[in-house]
Design brief:
Number of domains: 3
Domain HD: 62-256
CATH architecture of the largest domain: Orthogonal Bundle
Order of helices and strands: HHHHHHHHHHHHHHHHHHHHHH
CATH superfamily of the largest domain: Hypothetical protein af1432
Radius of gyration: 22 Å
CATH topology of the largest domain: Hypothetical protein af1432
Oligomer: single chain
Keywords: Hydrolase
Structural class: mainly alpha
Helix content: 55-70%
InterPro entries: dGTP_triP_hydro_central_sf, dGTP_triphosphohydrolase_C, dGTPase, dGTPase-like, HD/PDEase_dom, HD_domain
Shape: globular
Protein name: dGTPase
GO molecular function: dGTPase activity
CATH class of the largest domain: Mainly Alpha
Number of helices: 22
Distance between the termini: 59 Å
């Protein structure tokens, strides 16, 4: 089954099917604005990207990273959109719809990530795994089939939960974004249970199955989006929306290149170690840098490297368009581009010399402890709520105090699964600083 751009660019809103966009403001621009003005997006300003925050004012945090990904994604989409017009695949003017969808999805791509970077995801998942293994308390009451989605906690699934359920119109479409934007957001269109049931060769054979991206609680919402976009359905999962590859490419371009610039700014890598890979990716430009500071040279090469990577990913999308539309393409655009070798070397450098720096390692160790302290401090409230028959008014005084002190949102909590989601919603939504202060309060330190 080949996908159709007419379906893929669906402006139909989740939770508000009858809505019609105003003439001067497209629904995809509205999607972008709803994301930007949301509290979860705003909190990204105090969430770690890669390098620990607060040590340096010029280090990227997740909000700035998201804005930069949106900028690169828009550029990619406009250039690909023009190619699609030339090929007769979309009508003139629809390149703006393409760009709006991609930019909105890019802005949201990290909205579900917890504090302390990707190590925060591992900390949350590790804590749940320990709880399930111990057979203690509320976690022991959860249906075993539901455990994997908590044990391998996934920020992408949490992001879809925020967009489709939690923010704005709670339990009624969430932000009520278009099917197209939600489809472009969904990097892993499968639940944890459905993924686990697939043969290993199937999981390894398709990039969209590398992880899960939908909690069971939002499976029906995702099915509505996928069907609205005309995505091919498989046994328990869907093929990726073609625009996912553009969103993914924008993210890959930004974090790989900008992590190098941040490493130089933070003093984790010397000038020569950063200069050479950026110079190679930028195409070995012959530019006069006399009178420029080292930081200015690195910034110039960063900009040129991004431009070179954008060109490579546009070419890769166009060359693989038929496979992408058939749902059989299973690589990233970076991997399929003529810049793949340069990016592989940058990723190897990051693994060897950025992700292992003492500052980052200390953050991961302390962040794990902070997250576990918060989870341990809040879990007794939920267990007490269970003993009270899920009646918030019957909570013991101390637990009621904790609810008030933390503004803990217990709406819809009526059983083990919803209780654990409320716990994960709370801790994953924290900023780094708020997580630290909450851990201190709950632990009495």
């Amino acid at each position: 089954m080949t996908m159709r751009w007419a379906d893929l660019l669906s402006p139909r809103r989740l939770g508000d099917a009858g809505y019609e966009a105003r003439p001067m403001r497209s629904i995809f621009v509205q999607d972008h604005d709803r994301i930007v003005f949301s509290a979860p997006f705003r909190r990204l300003a105090n969430k770690t990207q890669v390098h620990p925050l607060y040590d340096h004012d010029h280090i990227h945090h997740r909000l700035i990273h998201s804005v930069e990904v949106g900028s690169v994604g828009r550029s990619l989409a406009m250039r690909i959109g023009q190619w699609l017009i030339d090929e007769g695949a979309i009508a003139p003017g629809e390149e703006h719809a393409l760009a709006g969808i991609v930019q909105a999805a890019c802005m949201a791509h990290d909205i579900g990530n917890p504090p302390f970077g990707h190590s925060g995801e591992a900390a949350i998942g590790g804590w749940f795994a320990e709880r399930f293994a111990s057979g203690r308390g509320l976690a022991a009451d959860l249906d075993p089939a539901m455990r994997a989605q908590f044990e391998a906690f996934e920020g992408n699934a949490q992001g879809f939960r925020i967009l489709s359920r939690l923010e704005m119109y709670r339990d009624s479409g969430g932000m009520r974004l278009s099917h197209a934007t939600l489809g472009a957001f969904m990097k892993y269109p499968v639940t944890a249970a459905a993924r686990a049931a697939l043969p290993e060769d199937v999981r390894k054979g398709y990039a969209g199955l590398k992880k899960f991206g939908v909690f069971a609680a939002e499976a029906d919402l995702w099915a509505e989006v996928a069907q609205g976009c005309g995505l091919p359905a498989e046994a328990g999962w869907w093929r990726r929306h073609p625009l996912v590859f553009i969103v993914e490419a924008a993210d890959d371009i930004c974090y790989n290149i900008v992590d190098l610039e941040d490493a130089f700014t933070a003093g984790d890598l010397p000038y020569d170690a950063v200069y050479q890979p950026l110079y190679e990716l930028a195409g070995r430009p012959n530019r006069d840098t006399a009178g420029q500071s080292p930081g200015e040279v690195i910034a110039m090469l960063r900009a040129m490297a991004i431009g070179s990577a954008v060109a490579g990913c546009v070419e890769a999308f166009c060359a693989n368009h038929a496979a992408i539309m058939a749902g059989t393409f299973s690589r990233s655009l970076i991997e399929a581009s003529d810049r793949a070798g340069e990016f592989a070397r940058i990723e190897a450098l990051a693994q060897e010399r950025i992700f292992t720096t003492p500052r980052k390692t200390r953050l991961e160790v302390s962040g794990r402890r902070v997250i576990h302290q918060v989870l341990e401090g809040v879990m007794p409230v939920l267990e007490a709520l269970g003993r009270a028959g899920w009646d918030k008014g019957a909570l013991p005084d101390h637990h009621a105090q904790v609810v008030r002190a933390l503004s803990l949102d217990l709406r819809g909590v009526a059983g083990p699964e919803t209780a654990l989601h409320a716990l994960a919603d709370f801790v994953s939504g924290m900023t780094d600083r708020y997580a630290i202060s909450t851990a201190r309060m709950l632990s009495g330190q």
